[in-house]
Each structure stands twice: as C-alpha cells, then as structure tokens.
Design a protein that fits this description.
Layout lengths: L2 H32 L3 H5 L4 E8 L10 E8 L9 E6 L2 E4 L11 E7 L4 E9 L8 E9 L1 E4 L7 E3 L8 E2 L2 E3 L2 E3 L3 E6 L3 E7 L4 E10 L8 E8 L8 E5 L4 E6 L5 E7 L5 E13 L8
Antiparallel strand pairs: 1-2, 2-5, 3-4, 3-6, 6-7, 8-20, 9-14, 10-13, 11-12, 13-20, 14-19, 15-18, 15-20, 16-17, 16-19
C-alpha cells in the first residue's frame, strides 16, 4: 500500500468515528429532552373530589352546609384551593379556601347552592412552578319552595266559603306573608290540591287559625298525599294555638290541604310557612 493511500484510509476512518460519536451524543440529547426529569415530574398537579355530603342528615339542601373532601398530588401540600359550583352556565366561587394537609387531603365546608343535579369543582389556579388543576363532581341539591308559590291544580269550595289559597295573614300574633288560608262554615269541607310530581321529599307547615276568626273558632286541618293521610298530618285547630306538621311526599304526585269547621261554627284555617322540599320548582305560579 502506498503512503498516500494509507493517509486517505486513516482520514476516512477518523471522520467515520467522529460521525458515530456525534450520532450517539445527539441520541442521548434527544432522550434527555423527551424524558422529563424527576423535578419536572414532581411538579405535576392533580386534584380529586372524593365526596360531597351534607354536614348533617342525609339530604343536600340549598342554603345548608355541605362538606366536600378529596386528595391532591404531593406538590400541593400546604397550598390553598378554591371551591366553585356551576349555577346556570357560570361557575360561582364559594366561601371556602381549604388548605391541603400533610396527608395530601383537603376538606371544605360550604353552603349548598343550586337545585337538582349540580356540579361542584375544586381547583388550584396554578403558579410559576405548578400547573393549574381541577376536579369536578355532581350532587343532587334539594331546595325548599313556598307552597304559596305553587299553582292550585284542583279545589273544592261550597256556598261561598273559600278553598285554601295563598293569602297573607296573621296567626297567633305573627304575620305570615306567604300563608295559605281557607274558610269553612257549618261542617263544610273545603280543599285545594298542589302537584309535587314525584320531584319532592317533604312538606312542612305551621297550622292554626287566623287571628281574624271569631273567639270560639275551631276546626280540623288535614294534609293528604295521593288520597292517603299520613300519621301526624291531621291537626285540631284552636284560636291562638299553632302546631307544626311535617310529612313525607316522596314518590307522590299530589298533595291536598283540607279544612273543615264544626257543624255550628266557622273557621279560617291557616297553613303558615307551608313549603315543599324538591329537586326542581315543580309548578310555580309565575
């Protein structure tokens, strides 16, 4: 082999080695860029909503306390979170800023909002080193609606005496702007019916006699559900006395308020603060 050929071969081998080394270096560099470092991985944020429950009882009721709890990723330890509820089409921030504990859990107590199936979410807005994150969970929210705000769908009155209707009145010295009042005389039965349409759980009211009634007024109030009178739904009425009534209307279509006077007297019966607990506003007047 001539000397010139040896130089050419050595030069070619040298360049091949350099290209090989450069290729390995580039591959290592690309691998480093593609695989996140442990520090980067540690900054990934995550939130879960494990539970939404009433603070007491079994039903989530609008305006009452609920507890929202869950877990987060390690990099949110000690950071504050926000709690929101979707009301209509907008997210509403609630008055709670839970702090993530050392066990990476959080607990927030807030007032329930919305009605029916309502979405709640817990979120971290993000920071320079931590990405934003949020988690959403739905819960059924029940709400008390005034019975006076619901349409009367059927009724019975006789000889000019009035079926139970929405009328402001005073009972036992207290004024009730959203009362339901009926008038009966001479043992005549008057009643009104309202739909609950399988959307409600409970009905409650304070029952008594209007302060405009005669001194010897007496009578009987009955609340029936789909034609059945539950226990505790009948009240004997006396002037100046009130009686709380609360009954279940679950899995029911209609409730009836009935008033009857003694055979020789007249009475103005009142269902004050009458309301139904429902997951929608069933049959509002407006």
């Amino acid at each position: 082999m001539f000397w010139g050929e040896r130089i050419i071969m050595q030069t070619t081998t040298s360049w091949r080695s350099r290209f090989a080394v450069a290729g390995v270096t580039a591959a290592v560099a690309i691998g480093l860029l593609a695989a996140p470092s442990p520090a980067m991985a540690a900054q990934r944020t995550a939130i879960t909503v494990a539970k939404i429950a009433p603070a007491s009882g079994k039903t989530i009721v609008a305006g009452e306390n609920i507890v929202i709890s869950g877990k987060t990723s390690a990099n949110l330890k000690g950071w504050k979170l926000k709690v929101q509820a979707k009301v209509g089409t907008k997210w509403q921030t609630l008055s709670a800023s839970p702090t993530v504990t050392t066990k990476l859990t959080y607990t927030a107590k807030v007032k329930a909002v919305g009605v029916g199936v309502t979405s709640y979410r817990v979120l971290f807005a993000g920071s320079k080193s931590r990405a934003a994150s949020s988690a959403t969970r739905a819960a059924t929210v029940w709400k008390w609606f005034p019975l006076a705000g619901q349409k009367v769908v059927d009724y019975k009155a006789s000889l000019g005496w009035a079926e139970p209707r929405s009328r402001p009145t005073t009972m036992a010295g207290v004024y009730y702007p959203e009362a339901i009042l009926g008038k009966s005389r001479g043992n005549r039965v008057v009643w009104s019916e309202f739909n609950v349409s399988f959307q409600c759980q409970s009905l409650s009211a304070l029952v008594g006699i209007s302060d405009d009634s005669p001194s010897d007024s007496a009578g009987m109030s009955t609340i029936s559900v789909d034609g059945v009178t539950p226990a505790g739904a009948t009240a004997q009425l006396k002037l100046g006395k009130t009686q709380p009534v609360k009954i279940s209307v679950a899995d029911s279509m209609r409730v009836r308020l009935t008033l009857v006077s003694p055979s020789d007297g007249q009475v103005e019966g009142v269902w004050a603060n009458a309301k139904i607990l429902c997951k929608k506003n069933v049959n509002p007047v407006n």
